[in-house]
């Protein structure tokens, strides 16, 4: 089946028997992301988690100053 990445509009061909193709057919609401976008989101999410915990840490430090 043909799928289109929701982020970069790149079209790919999925093996009809692959689990991802079955998932997309059964749940049309499930969006497809190409491998490079998937990696990018993953890296971004990990970076956000890292910076999030850093902000939480400095926030705690500021609280100590009061
Ligand atoms: Zn993409």
The hetero molecules present are: zinc ion
Q: How many domain modules?
A: 1
What characteristic shape results from the CA principal axes?
elongated
Which residues sit in consecutive blocks of at least 5 with pLDDT less than 50? Answer: none
How many E strands?
2
How far the N terminus sits from the C terminus, by CA atoms, comes to 60 Å
- Helical content class: 55-70%
Q: What Rg is obtained from the alpha carbons, in whole angstroms?
A: 19 Å
Strand content: 5-15%
- Structural class category: mainly alpha
Strands of the largest sheet, in order across it? 1-2
Protein name: YlaI family protein
InterPro entries: DUF2197
Pfam families: DUF2197
Written overview of the protein:
This protein is mostly helical. The chain has one domain. The protein has helices spanning 19-26, 35-65; strands at residues 2-4, 11-13. Strand 1 and strand 2 (11-13) form a beta hairpin. It is elongated, with a radius of gyration of 19 Å. The protein binds zinc ion. Zinc ion binds at residues 5, 7-8, 10, 33-34, 36-37.
How would the blueprint of this fold be written?
Blueprint: E1 2-4, E2 11-13, H1 19-26, H2 35-65
Antiparallel strand pairs: 1-2
The structure holds zinc ion.
Offer a concise description of the structure.
The chain is 59% helix and 9% strand.
């Amino acid at each position: 089946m043909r799928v289109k990445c929701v982020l970069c509009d790149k079209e790919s061909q999925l093996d009809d028997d692959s689990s991802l193709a079955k998932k997309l057919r059964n749940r049309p609401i499930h969006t497809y992301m190409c491998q490079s976008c998937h990696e990018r989101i993953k890296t971004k999410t990990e970076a956000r988690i890292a910076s999030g915990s850093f902000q939480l840490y400095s926030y705690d430090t500021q609280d100590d100053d009061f």
